[in-house]
User: What shape does this take?
Amino acid sequence: MQDMNEQTSLQMNEEKIEFISNGLLLRGIVRLPSGLRDGEKRPAVIVLHGFGSNKSAENVLGPCGVLGSLGYITLRFDMSGCGESAGPRGNLICLEQVQNTRDAVTFLSAHPFVEEGRIALIGSSFGAAIGIYTGAVDERVAAVISSGGWGHGERKFRGQHPTPESYARFCAMLEQGRLHREKTGTSLMVPRMEIVPIPVGLKRQIVSGSIQEFTAETAQSMFDFRAEEVVHQISPRPLLLLHSSVDSVTPTEQSIGLFKNAGKPADLHLFGDTDHFMLAEGNQRVWNVVRDWLNTFFPVRTL
Assistant: This one.
């Protein structure tokens, strides 16, 4: 636990920010590392939240804390329709979230303390997929770290709905959503767990305020999303893929598939003593890998 002085120091180093993306007002927080001097510039990392989550999730706050202690500037923000940001609730379209992230890069690039050309992305699960795709299509992204991410929506959903019956129900929901939209002009709303099932033991990781119902268009967008097809475009910028060796939410083969399609330099690490929300668990083996990778490929250079 942080003591009161540490909490106060962090709050003093944080700034609430806003920027526009796709015509919507998005809200976030920039955190400056301690010891930053006037006129000094540091590399920055944008920390992306997971499916329907927000910037207060532990797999966002945890990385922000570690990265800040290593000397990085961080930005965490709520994707459109999530948390404090504007937008239709529960309508999370993958390519729109890619644009949200690109606009976050634009915002952070203009920050007076951010080193030019040195903005990285780190994300968990849905945020990891968005981060990979964004890094592939936006050359301003200097490095990408993916935790429990995915690259091929159709295969991902087949793994998350593993029996023929459960996958048939999922596909029927997509079709029902299309028909509902055609007939009514409105979106069919679908419970979160019918899109991405999460084991009971991991539900504690779902942060308060997370969205519990999504449009069928959200599921269709994820089904159609193919970060795997563009991941090679990140090269020659570095990519780090982290995944549980037995992930109870996102099939491990998703990161393996991304690694097979990635150019160099790319690293893949599978961990047997953690699960899907590994960046929220404080697992030191995971963070030792991340620290070493950052020191090699995206180091802080202080005055």
Notes: The two ends are 30 Å apart (CA to CA). Residues 199 and 266 are 30 Å apart (CA to CA). The chain has ten helices and ten strands. Confidence is low (pLDDT under 50) at residues 1-11.
